[in-house]
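Job type: complex structure
Entries:
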Amino acid sequence: MSRILGISNLTMAFGGVRAVQQFDLLLEEGGVHGLIGPNGAGKTTIFNVVTGIYRPQSGSVLFEGRELVGRRPFDIANAGIGRTFQNIRLFPNLSALENVIIAGHKDASYGMLEALTHLGRYGRVVRAQREHARELLAIVGLDAREKERAGSLPYGLQRRLEIARALAIRPRLLLLDEPAAGMNEEESVALVNFIREIRRRFSLTIFMIEHHMDVVTSLCDEITVLNFGKILARSSCMEEIKKNPSVVEAYLGKE
Amino acid sequence: MSDYTQGVVILICVNAIAVAGVSVLTGFTRLFSFGNGGFMAIGAYTSAILTKVYGAPLALSMPLGMACAGAAAWLIGKLTLRLKGDYFLITTLGFGECIRVALEYAYKLTGGPRGYSNIPHYTNAYLAVGLLIVSLIVARNFIQSKYGWHFMAIREQEVAAEAVGVDTAKYKLMSFVFSAVYAGCAGVLFAHYLRFIAPNMFNLEKSAEWTITVVIGGLGSLSGSVISSVILTLLPEVFRGLAEYRMLVYGAAVVLIIMLRPNGLMGYRELSSFFPALFRKSRSDREEEAR
Amino acid sequence: MLAQQLINGVSVGGVYSLLATGYALIYSLLGFSNWAHGEVAMLGAYIAVMSVVTVKMPFIPALVLAVTGAALISFVNERVFYRRIRSNNSPTMFLMIAAMGLSTTYKNLIVVLVGPKFKYFPSILTVESMEFFGLTVGVLDIISIIVSIIAIFFLDFLIYHTKFGLGVRACASDSTTSELLGVNVNRYILIVFLLAGALAGCAGVLLGMKYTVYPSLGNVALKAFIASVFGGLGSIRGAVLGAFTIGILETLVSAYISSGLRDLFTFGLLVAILLLRPEGLLGKSVEQKS
């Protein structure tokens, strides 16, 4: 298996505050890596650096051997990294189907003239785009509600739509930011199965931030614990992590 | 058709074309500009000077006028679109006023604040309506293409748009240039109808008027913007006594709309969704209906 | 000659500073440019001139009425319109569009109610100009300068050296936290609007006396707004700095280069600032993150 993502010596500071310090990570292709830690530990910041929203003060992020730091977010997304957001960022006034179609823009193989006249390849391409988007919606179980306004969908379905949209850009690496947030036990189990399924089906590598320890334990083959921007622990075994005294202290405080 | 009616029709078309451009910029990409009047001025003066001084035919001067307006927007946009929304707005205001004041200052070329007159008369009602129809069809097609999708993604959630691979800088610029080209076209039509143009016709008030029209008509609705433009241009003509009150009503209307119904009259919906029977559907749309 | 122009410039700058500080205050609290502020000044000018000319009120009470009236109109703008729009959770941009709408409404309301013709203040000053070291200085200019300086010092003291001012600065820096800490943010906002309105009223009367009173008087506020951007939107001290800088530079350009270029200079300055240093001299960074 080859290494798909390599983060080394990453430091991200805002003004005087260092949100992430000397973070590093190696992700093997096809793996599932979990990033856990108390709120404010810097987890989403790491996602934002990887996807190009923030530019780190130092460090490097290599995706399939090429440097991501300094590249614009859209460029990084087009290179094959998809993501979901902690506070869902759908396109609220557009329908579920439209949300996914937009993300599938790589397939829009017509030019400006055809766009302005709706002639030529336009009709055929748009129909194909719609079909592909429908397939993705079906995978997340939203095909019956494709015409509904994304902002009006119930919370759980919005989360699923975000994943469908992220899949539409044909990523090889998928960053999931708290996918199980707000879910009960039953829903979490369904989510775990779902993630396993899409990983298999789309040959994905998954990097996720999550607070639900059951989800993390079931899915992740390696876990990193982060606090105050620094790595506290890293292991492929959840039990070991739970016993680590600094991890316990981070979550529960000192005796 | 009487001269007066011709004039009203032409004015309606001029305003509607400019508003359609601003609708794409503001209603679909959520970029607010108070400087588009400057682009109308560039289109108007370019075409006026080319035709009057160099004897160029309209078929040449109109595309050139529109291209100049578009080029100006490209330059300005390249410099300013990286700024946050309200700063971008202020910068466009600044540029719009700079264009106006520059036109006043370069009086040897443009006639200065007193204006530029004896522009050849090329615009008639048929040309105006024809151009309006074409520009609306093109705008509608543009919106329903991948480019329109990109604009809407930027409008809805810019960060997420980047996250799905949309080059937001490039498409914001594209939207801005599109609105400028339309403003330029409106300017050309206007110049060759009125036969006289002056810099203060293309001022901040004009630009703000278009933005206000789009907000009233509803952000995200091309037909809403155009309809509200037609109504707002037509009202003072139909009710003669209202002419004085026109701007007063505009101003009050936008304040009320923002307070009470921020989505405007037709926010995010098009005329076609209200009257499906009246609108010829494309083949793919009809297949959609059949599902 | 230069000294004369400088005094002119300082006087113009003083009036700009009365408006620019109002812009800065409102921007610092609400994060938007209050396009309707110029019309508050215009309405103040109209109240004063109508009181003096039509109602035959003596000048000082008319002035007080004008300043109070302007403050109240500014108050109403916030209490009735802006607050409602904020409570809708509308984006800040909508506040600006609404402000533009209010500006248009007020301007045209005056046109419809009073008429578009210029109105003149009768000569109130017994002495039109004075001699200082061989310079002829307009008394009105001197009064403008004195009024603006008093207002600036008063405002600076209020904002930076009183408990009230501390509250305003807290709200400006973080209104949510301030509210959580028990600060009645809405009340501070209202008071700030009253203050800004009063200052604008003064500016309107001064402008009306120096030139004339007409519906588009508020357009002058655009220059004051540019001053505020120059100094850094949201910074009161920056606004003052910007106002005097622009007032003086503008006057010098008009006197020594060309009066036609005066506005081009000022708008060009606005564009240059926004491109080179959008946060102005004393403000915070404004570029988008991505």
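Summary: The beta strands of chain A are 3-14, 17-28, 32-36, 58-63, 66-67, 81-83, 173-177, 205-209, 222-227, 230-235. The interface with chain B takes residues 51-53, 72-75, 77-78, 82-83, 85, 89-94, 98, 101-103, 105-106, 108, 110, 112, 114-118, 122-123, 126-127, 130, 165-166, 168-169 of chain A (CB under 8 Å).
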